[in-house]
Amino acid sequence: MQIQDHIITNIPVFKIEGTFEKVLDFFKTNTFSHVAITEKGKFVGVFSENDMEVVKPKAKIEDYRYDLESFFVQKDTNWLDVLEAFARNEANLLPIVGSDEQVIGYYDLTDIVAVFIDTPFFTDPGNILVIATAAKDYSFSEVAQIVESNNAKFIGGFITDVQNDVVQITIKISNTNFNEVVQTFRRYGYHILFGNADDQFLENLKGRSDYLDKYLNV
Description:
The protein is of the alpha+beta class. 31% of the residues lie in helices and 26% in strands. The chain has helices spanning 21-28, 79-88, 109-117, 120-123, 140-149, 178-187, 200-216, and strands spanning 14-15, 34-39, 42-48, 93-97, 103-108, 127-134, 154-163, 166-173, 191-195.
């Protein structure tokens, strides 16, 4: 997937030698979360829209150098890592920094999500399955092998969460033999967190959850 076509070059970059006056005007007229700051043409960090209230228009950006956040992506950063950078930094605008440390443009979250949604993972028909396993046991090749051994098509998948040494994987597979795939994952020790096909296990789990809620509220 090529996302470089979505690099935006008409959003300003502000110099650290200046004041916050134009920076604050930028945020007042846009809905972006961050904007890049440079020094002598080189990237030094980003200023957050959340910090607008703590600075005065005439204040020097230089005086807040150590309050700048330091995140960016590069032109050759793959699209999944770009999405992760957006999420990790709670940003909707990411500066793109070249090998010479100059800001060559930005990625807008809306554009990248639109590209993501246009992938076969979303557009091809199929079922979503969310599974979990211990990080030490995780193998993407095994996940694909389980799907394909049941004569189902593996459309795509990615890690959606890692907590307490447990890996959560979201996959999309064809409608063929969906329940057989689910049962095979269980036999291999995977936990089924979500499956959007007719699966009695999910109904039983929901029933147990409802019963537990009633028990706790007694």
